[in-house]
Design a protein that fits this description.
The structure is a homotetramer. Chain A has about 350 residues and is an alpha/beta fold. Chain A has helices spanning about 10-20, 40-45, 60-70, 80-90, 105-115, 120-125, 130-140, 150-165, 195, 210-225, 255-265, 315-330, and strands at about 1-5, 25-35, 55-60, 70-75, 95, 125-130, 145, 175-180, 200, 230-235, 240-250, 275, 295-300, 305-310. The interface between A and D is large, with 51 and 51 residues.
C-alpha cells in the first residue's frame, strides 16, 4: 500500500484525484493540502466526499507532507509547484506534477511564456508524462510532468501522422473547445454561470494560449524537427470535456481507410486510446468521467485535407486520470489500476 | 461469478446498470436485450462503452435470456415487465424489476393508476426493494420491485418522522425536482434540448403523477395507517438528480437539533444514506453518479413546520444503483459491492 | 422625452433596464453609474450593447446624476440605495428603487432582517410597486419600491385567494426555484458555472431568506391580518426565471374550475398577468425575456389542497421590466410602453 | 400595413418570425400554417405567445394563404418550399424563403447535394438574401432565398478578405459551432436534452454538410473564381448561436491592425455587422436574440495565418431576423424596422 499526498486538493483536479484514487486498490490518500481551506475537512469543501473521505486539509509544509507520503501529486498553479517540488525530490519522493512547471524542457521557453524558471536542475530530470508516447521513460521516473489538457488531446490526435510523415508539419491547425472546469475553481466574473451559459467563444486566439509551446515541443519531437502550429481554444458551456478538431495538408494522397488503419496500428494495445471505426466521430459526452481519448482521423475528399477529431475529459485523461496512469507506470502498478471506471452518460 | 442479464439495455437505466456492474467483482454481464436496437452492439448505441462492453443486443426472448443468466434486471416500461417476469420466475431466476409493475402490493391500486395487472400471483411474492426500510425481506428474495426515483427520495426523507410519530401524517407535502433523464430516452418533443433547457416547470400537479400511490403505500406502512400526500414533481434543466423538499406539521414541538439526532440514529450504519450536519443542505450536484441519498431535516422556527430536504441521483440510488444494492442483498454479496464509486463533481 | 439615469448599471438588472428602455419611445438613457467600472464604456462591460449604447460609466455622484435625469432607477445592493435616494428625493426626482431598502414599511422589520434603516422619512413616502395590487397609489408616486423577484411571483400567485378569503392564511407554503442571475454578477465560488451546472439545491430553508418579510407584509395586507408563511427558495441551473409552487388549505370546498374563474376575474384587463386555462401549467421557459407572470391555480382533488403555480422572468417582471412598468404608471405613460416584446423561446 | 403569412409556423424559425414581426410597425401577421398542428392555436404550441398572438394554425393551402397575405415567409424543410413557392409567385406575392431550395443558383449543384430541383424557372429569379453583400439586388425582389445559418456567419466573416484578395482562396478552413435549435424541433433521439447536454461534438466532417456548396458558391463569387473550402460544423450544448473560426493563408504580409481597418471600412454603415476593436473577440452570448453579426479578424503572428472569428444568433441573423431584414429591403421599409431589439444577456 502506497501513501499518497495531494498538494492543492481543493481545486477540481485535486478532487478528481481523490475520486479516482478512492477506487485504487494499492494506494491510500494520507495527506491533503490547501492554502485557502486549511483547517477544514475536504468533505466540507466538496460534499461529494462526505463519509468517504473526511481528511483535514493542511497548510502546505513540504517536509510534513513528505513525511506522510511516498508519492506526491502537485495540483498547484504554475510557479507554486516549482517552489515545493525541489524539497519533495530531495527527500526522495516520487512527484507527479500537474502544473506547467516541468513540461517545457527548455527553461528559456518557459521563461518566454511564463516567467523565469526557478528549478532548472529538476527540469532536466522531469519526464513528460504522455504514456502513449513515452511510456518507457516514465517507468521508474521520479518526477513526471503531467501534460496539459489541450496538449493531451492534440498530441495524441496528431502523433501517428507526424511520426509517419503523413502530413506537412507546417500546415497544422488545431481548433479546440473546452468545458469550464478547465478554468479552475477560483472566483472570477468570467467563470460565473450566467457569463458562460448559453455562450460559445474563442479565446487566446492567434497563438496566445500557454499550451501552445507545450504542444509544439512534443509535435516537433514526433516530427523530428521544429514546427509551429496555429492553435485556437474555445470555451463551451459545459463542465467537462475537450474536443480538438485538427487540420493538416497530407504530403501524399491518403484515404480515410488508410488513416484509420494507421491509427489502429499506432495505438494497438493502448488501454485508453480508442480509434473509432470509419464513419464514427467522437463526442466529449462519450468520455465524460473516463480516462479515454477517442480519436477519428479522416480525409476531406473534396479538398484533400486530413482532419482528425479527438475527445477527452479534461479532468481525467487531460489531468487527474492521466496523473494516476503515470503514477501506475512510474511505480510499477498495472497501468489501468483505479482507472477501470467507464465514462458516465448521460 | 454470477451471470447477469439486462433486459431493456438501450435505455438510460440499462446503460447505468452496465456502468455500475462493470466494476462489480462478482458479476459478469452476459446478455443484453433491446427491442429497438437488437442486432447492434451496445457500444454502437452508447459509445461510452466502446472497447469495454461490446455485447450484441438481442431480441427479448425470455427463455433464451434465462439460459444465459442467474440474475435478470428488467429495465422495461410498465406492462412490458410483467409480460416477461413470470417466465423468469418460473425458471427459477432472481429478478430485479426496475419497472412499476411489482411495486404496488394491491393489484386494484395498480389497476386504478396504470391498467389491469397481468400477474397478481408474483405480485404477492415481490418485495419492495428499499433496503434501508426492508433489508431483511430483500435477503434471499426472488423478485425485487426496485422503487421509483421520486419515491426513493421521499420515503427515505420522511421515514424517521413517520416511524417515530413526529409529524401529522395528513399534513405531508412533497415538492420535488428531477433531471431530464427521468423521462427516458424516447424521442419526444417535450424532451428536446431546446424545450427543456433554460426552463423550470411543474407537471402532474394535483396528484396526477403515477409515483403518488407508491409513495403513499410506503409512507402509510411506516405511519401505521392510510395517509394521502400532496406530491408535485418539477422538471429541472439538468441530466440527473432529484431533490425533494418535504413539509409537514409536527405533532409536538421539535427542534432541528433533535431531528438531526433522530435521523442520525435511524440511519446509523447505513452505507448510502448521509444525514447532513445541522446547517448543511443537500444538492443533487453532490450525489451525481453515486448511490447516495443525502438528507437534511430541520424546523422552520417561525412557523413551526418540519422541513426535510433529500437528494439522490435518479439513475443511481433512484434506479440502477439501488437495483445493484438490492441484487447484492438478495444474492448475499456485501451490500456495497460495485457501489464504492464516489459521486462525480463537477 | 424623459431623461433617465440608471445607478448601478453594471449588474444584470442594470443591463436589463438598458435593454428594455432601448425600445421605449418616451425615454432617453442619459446617465449610467458603476463603482466597479467607472471610466469604461457600458458596451465594454456588456458587449451586447456595442454600437447601440456606448455611454461612459460614471462614479455615483448623486448631484451630478440628478442633473442629468428626471427619473432615476437605483439598481444597487441594499443599504447603498438608501444612501443616495434621499438626495434624489430632495432634488425632486422620481426614483424607482430596485433594492430592498424601501420595500418594508416598518423600519423595525427592516432592522431585524437587514440592518438599521437610514432613511425612515422617505420610507413613509415609498409605494410598494406591484402594479396589479397597488396601481392607484403608484400613479404620480415619487419613490417606488420595486418588489423582489420571489415576492412578485408569490404575491401575484396568492393575491386572489387571500383577498377573497378562499384559503386559511396560516397554511401557506411557497416553494420556489430561481435561475442563477438572481444571485447577481459578483465573483463568488458559489455562482461559478461548474458549481451551479447540473445541480439543484434548496437554500435559506426554514425562513432564512430576506424576501420572507416582504412576502408576509404584502400577503398580510391582502388577507387583512398578520400571517406567516413557509418559504423555501431553490437554485436551478439556468440563467433566468422563477417558478413558485404554492400550497394552502381552502376554507371551504373549491374546484379548479372555480379557481380559474376567480383568477381570470381578479386579473381581468391586466396586461402582464396571464391566467392559464385549466389543464395548462406555467414554465419559466415561456416568460423568458418578457414581462409576464403566468399563473395556474388548481385543486388537488385527492387531498383537497389548493395549489398555485406561477412563473416570471426574475430579471423582467421580477426586476427591471416591472421597474419600467412602474415608471410608466408613475410618469403617466401607457403602462405597456417599452414592454411589448414577447418572451424569447427557445 | 402589410399582411404577412408564415408558412411552417410551428418550428423555431417560424416562432422567431412571429416574435420579431410582433414589434414591426408596418406589418400584420394574418396567416400561419402548420401541417402537424393545424387546428390548434399557435399559442397552444408556443405558450410564449399567449394573449399576444393567438392565431389558429391552418393547413398549407397555397391559394388560401395567398389570399390573406402580401408577403409570405416560407419556413419549411427543403423540397416542401419549392412545392408551394411557384403558386405564391404566380399569384404575385413576395416570398422570403428560409429553406435551401432557392439558395444554389445552379440546379445541378442542388441536385448533387439535395435532390432534383422542381422549380428551376423561379430559381433564376431568386436573389440570395445576404443584404451586406447583395443589398441592391434585394430591393424590389419578389423571391429572396434567405441564407443558411452557417453560411451567414462564414460569408460575412470572409467577404472582405476575398473581395480584397488578401488571402489564398484555396487555403480556407471554417470551423463552426452551433446551438441545438439549428437542428429544428422534430422529435429525434439525437436532439434530446440528455444526448446533447454536457457534450461537444463534430458532425458532417469532411465536406458532408449541405451548407458547404452554399458557402462555396458565395465565396467563389466574392473571390472571382471557383474555390473549395474545408468546413466542419460542431454541436454545442446551448439553444442558440453560431460561432465560426476561420483560417486562411494571406497572399502578402498583413497585420491585425490593417485587417481591422479593412473590415471597418468594408462594413461601414452596416447596421447589423459589428467589427470588434482589436483585442476583442465575439461570443454567441453577445448576439443572443439580436440581429447582429460580430466579427474579429486578426493575424496569428507566430505562423502568419489570418484568423477570423464571427458570431451570430442562428435563429435571428442566421434565419428569421435576416428574413425580416430582407423583407424590409425588398418592400422598401427602413432596413432595421422591427429589428431594433438588443441582444439579451444573460
Amino acid at each position: 500500500m502506497l501513501n499518497v499526498a495531494i498538494v492543492g486538493a481543493s481545486g477540481y483536479t485535486g478532487l478528481e484525484l481523490i475520486r479516482i484514487l478512492h477506487c485504487h486498490p494499492e494506494v491510500a490518500v494520507t495527506c491533503l493540502t490547501s492554502e485557502q481551506s486549511a483547517g477544514k475537512r475536504i468533505s466540507d469543501v466538496f460534499p461529494t466526499l462526505r463519509e468517504r473521505c473526511d481528511l483535514m486539509l493542511e497548510n502546505l509544509e513540504p517536509i510534513r507532507v513528505a513525511e506522510k507520503a511516498d508519492v506526491i501529486f502537485t495540483a498547484l498553479p504554475h510557479k507554486a509547484a516549482m517552489e515545493v517540488v525541489p524539497t519533495f525530490m530531495k527527500l526522495g519522493k516520487t512527484v507527479i506534477d500537474l502544473s506547467a512547471d516541468y513540461r517545457l524542457s527548455d527553461p528559456k521557453v518557459y521563461g518566454a511564456w511564463y516567467e523565469e524558471h526557478l528549478n532548472p536542475a529538476n527540469l532536466k530530470k522531469a519526464v513528460y508524462g504522455l504514456p502513449e508516447i513515452r511510456r518507457a521513460r516514465i517507468k521508474g521516473a521520479r518526477l513526471v510532468a503531467n501534460p496539459g489538457c489541450y496538449p493531451t488531446s492534440i498530441i495524441l490526435g496528431l502523433a501517428p501522422l507526424l511520426k509517419k510523415g503523413v502530413i506537412d508539419p507546417h500546415s497544422i491547425i488545431a481548433d479546440s473547445a473546452s468545458g469550464v472546469s478547465g478554468a479552475g475553481r477560483s472566483a472570477k466574473v468570467d467563470s460565473l454561470y450566467c457569463e458562460v451559459n448559453e455562450g460559445f467563444k474563442a479565446y487566446g486566439v492567434g497563438g496566445a494560449h500557454r499550451h501552445t509551446p507545450e504542444i509544439e515541443q512534443e509535435l516537433s519531437l514526433l516530427a523530428g524537427f521544429e514546427l509551429k502550429i496555429t492553435f485556437t481554444p474555445h470555451l463551451a458551456p459545459m463542465d467537462r470535456g475537450i474536443l480538438s478538431t485538427m487540420y493538416a495538408t497530407p504530403t501524399k494522397e491518403v484515404t480515410t481507410e488508410k488513416l484509420v488503419a494507421l491509427y489502429k496500428g499506432f495505438y494497438a494495445g493502448e488501454p485508453f486510446v480508442r480509434v473509432l471505426p470509419q464513419g464514427s466521430l467522437p463526442s466529449t459526452a462519450f468520455v465524460r468521467g473516463g480516462n479515454f481519448c477517442d480519436i477519428a482521423p479522416l480525409v476531406d475528399s473534396r479538398t484533400g485535407r486530413v482532419i482528425v477529431v479527438s475527445a477527452i475529459d479534461n479532468l481525467v485523461k487531460g489531468a487527474s486520470g492521466q496523473a494516476v496512469q503515470n503514477m501506475n507506470i512510474a511505480c510499477g502498478f498495472p497501468e489501468t489500476l483505479g482507472l477501470e471506471g467507464l465514462a458516465i452518460f448521460p
